[in-house]
Amino acid sequence: MNTLTIIALILAISAAFGLLAGAGKTKPARRRKNKGDIGESRISILNEIGLDENHIGLDNILIPLPDGGTTQIDHIVVSPYGLYIIETKNMGGWIYGNEYDSQWTQVLYKQKSTFQNPLRQNYKHCQVIASALNLDNSLVHSVIVFIGDSEIKTPLPANVCNGGTAYLNYIKQPREARIPLPELPRLIAAIQKLRLENSAENCTRHIAYIEQIRNEARCPRCGGKMEKRIAKNGPHAGKAFYGCSKYPRCHGTRPIEA
């Protein structure tokens, strides 16, 4: 039995256990949780089986933010080639979008729905980790993985992977080693010290924080606060818009909705 066959069997078993684990929840909540948990468990297994001992995976990392909130990172892979910050999407159907859109579209059984551009979502995660660990941004790599029966219908950057095989191939691409092997345990220890316990209380607070920021004007690039400004030139001169308070370090903008 080859490695890919073993991985496939383990993924099938993990999916079955994921469905059983949610048996006590209401149907909509169970489906949402199971989809997320199953997608994340698949990546955890792939990291364990498909990567070598110099790629160390951490899962479900809840990080405190300066404003008192939290951000949740699905996976971090620490390696000599940098830190891979991984956002998983367990979705089916056709996926449309590009790296600059604020929203992407899923078409499933002829029904359209939109979701946040995961590249933008993961940009904030990368910035948080780089800042907290005092790392150069070039050492922190964003990776998006679609796990499920999905097909990406528009051109997207190479770091958007469709399926586990594409994900492993991307992580394994030859790159220059920039972090000495003896430094890896220190980085892992720093992340473990930084992260919060995945307790029910912390998870509840995180969900409440997410709901709060959804109702506030937040930068689509870094998640920072937005300030009302007036465009000075260009086709929108004289019009009001929201600009990131971290400008010029961040150039995120949002229109002011009527």
UniProtKB/TrEMBL annotation:
Domain NERD stretches: 35-152
Gene Ontology biological process terms from the UniProt entry: DNA topological change
Isomerase among keywords: yes
Sorted UniProt keywords: DNA-binding, Isomerase
Gene Ontology cellular component list: chromosome
Domain of life: Bacteria
Name of this chain's protein: Topoisomerase DNA-binding C4 zinc finger domain protein
Organism: Cardiobacterium valvarum F0432
